[in-house]
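User: New here, any thoughts?
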Amino acid sequence: MKSDLKFFNKKKTLPVDKFFKNVLYNKKNGYYNTKQPFGKKGDFITAPKISNLFSEIVAIWIISAWHVFGKPKNFNIVELGPGDGSLTKILLQVFKRFPEFNAIKKIYLYEESNFLKNLQKKNIKNNEIKWVENFKGINNGPVVFFGNEFFDAIPIKQFKSKKGFLYEKYYALNRDNKIVEIFKKASKEDVRNINSYKSLRNLKFIEFPKYGFKELKKIIKKILQLKGCLLLIDYGYLKPHNFSTMQSLMSHQKNNLLNNLGKADITSHVNFKLLSEFLVKNNLKVEKIVPQQKFLKNMGIIDRAQIIGKKMKFREQSNMYLRLKRLLSPSLMGELFKVTLAHKSKSSKFFGFN
């Protein structure tokens, strides 16, 4: 337990989001700066690692967005939280098949962890890619931001409502240096902020992505400046649960949230209704939120599988369809994962959402 003290940064109490930000992103001891989290040997597996077809569909969607924006001579693509670089690696392969688009596109990767940056550089091995810490250097042409399982990894605040008052959840160290939960009266700023969202009304337990919204404001600012869009694919819900959705995984198994700190992944489910409300409040148009299954099918993933399956041996074909089932099945990722698109453009003819 003593090793957990470092995540308090000499403070005795921290709100949930600040505590888990230290656990996940601390430069020296944070999970994303010390451990390879992806794949069989890691703690979880994401869609790009399940099947290249997922990344191919994202690539085709990005090219279709370029068409929606009128095939401009400058076109910027930013992947948010690129993991181990698997998705961008496939994007580059697909873009080569579209020479006109390939010649004008610029790709940027937005990553907080130096450990993961190095992993991405090893996997992608491409001099065209630029890693950025902010979006100030992106100045010409529309910009497409996209993130797969980006928003769920940003720590959230948690509150409970009792007798008309909001109380924020904190983690504290007791006399034995054990971590305990305590609640403190919420700040006036947070109360005002939370009360401004319809989707959070009448809830007894509230999760609020203050850090996440701060990140989105930087993205929105650039979209409003240059035109463009934001595509987010993540697991989450449309109706709030009224309880904590935070979860921890270690070696692909559920882990107690406060065990193995810095060695296990910690995420929360995304409140897509709240996310939409925030994006609209900040002057973006938001398309209908669709399940991952519908988005991928609308984009032709099954047709693509049938085409490439013709050249495969039976065993390879079976493997491909098994992976496809994991992406599409309602009982697996198909319904739990949602896709949302926010944009600033004259047209709303984006593929995948009809």
About this structure: The chain has one domain: 36-153+209-344.
